[in-house]
Amino acid sequence: MKTRGDFMQDVIIIGCGVVGAACAYRLSRFRLRLTVLEALSDVAGGTTKANSAILHGGYDPEPDTRMARLNVEGVGMAEKICARLDVPYRKTGSLVLAFSQEDRALLRTLLERGERNGVTGLRILSGDEARALEPELSGEVLEALLAPSAAIVNPWEYALAMAETAVRNGAALHLSCPAAAITREGEGFAVTTPKGVFHSRYIINAAGVYADRVHELIGEKAFTIRPAKGEYYLLDKSEGTRVSRVIFQCPGPMGKGVLVSPTVHGNLIVGPTAEPSGPEDTANTPRGLQTVRELAVRSVPGVRFRENIRNFAGVRAGSDRGDFIVEESPTVPGFFNAAGICSPGLSAAPAIADELARLLERKGLALEEKEDFIDTRRRVRFHELDDGVRNELIAADPRWGRVVCRCETVTEGEIIASLRSPIPPSSINGVKRRVGAGMGRCQGGFCGPRVQEILARELGVPPEAVPLEEPGSYILTGETKEAWA
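and the corresponding structure tokens:
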């Protein structure tokens, strides 16, 4: 097996969902040799691309847990990171609804819990006060807990932006590069992958639903990941103003329940369910989608599900510990786990990264800050520009004026820019996540073939070699031939 690189890395991060990306972003500000290994063909390809896109206030986790502390810290950090790295973000606030006396008692528990966790601005509203803020709420709502600090974000661009910034600052990212074996090598580790063997002093395990398996490549069993699937509806922008805040029902044993929420793209998202599942079970089911519909209309009766443009499911990586696992392995010194990162993992990600940086420093890793660290990022969104700036772009390169995706007004220039970015896409869905082509009402029915054509041309491959997502998810397989005479 070929060895990658002549130099021992300081840190290898296994996994580049939002937690791995946040770790890379945090550590890339220091003078370190840093490598990120991602099993999929793109960053943010697992739980990070299929979730509720909520930055939670922090009233739900039990006090004095890592989950509670890191949720509140992470939400406070996210707003600044999104501003620096040009990630769509909106502080909407949230409401948790009570429909019964039992629910009203739970709201008071959540209020007390949130105050102990350090969440500010929490208050309980009467049903009428809640409907004054959100007129579409059910008349059956008795009370609601208002959390002004909750926000919505573009989750995959949040992870991508942090990963891109890490790469711009010298981190090495290897995609389609799963860890197949990990062994001790002196005081460090050797990680065997399909692309060779990588060497490092320390490892951060941010492998999501596979974090327990990655740990067990070298250590004794320390925890078990318990995946849970959540199914969703994504509704057209015609439903995007149905509510202006994130609307929750009271949480239960399997999570925060079915929510109704605006998205930063102007749509309405409804879901999720919470069912035990396999780590890759992202199939929608009639039963799951029916459950979402039945529960959602209890909160917001007017939701028009006929405006649905997409159903999807995501898998969350809960664990048998019931709390975030952010620690050095008890059996493998120098191996650090970021595991069991279920909801509110998106909210907590940058705080988890800070925690791991502190643990690494205590272990002996020198964290010397770079004087030339790049901590800004800007992406051109053509539909947001004024006519003067648009005309300047088109004059410099006519491709900026060629609209490829009519629904979202995405131009060829934006797609080309994504292909010149620090982490370029290699699939149609990779383009979709970066610039929005295919995210609109027709879901790529119009622009998909054109995106495929552009990718084939720019990557120098035949059109049938361009996948929808992972290698092998081909749209074209060859020329069609008549099967009859």
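(Above: one complete record from the training split.) The mean pLDDT is 95.
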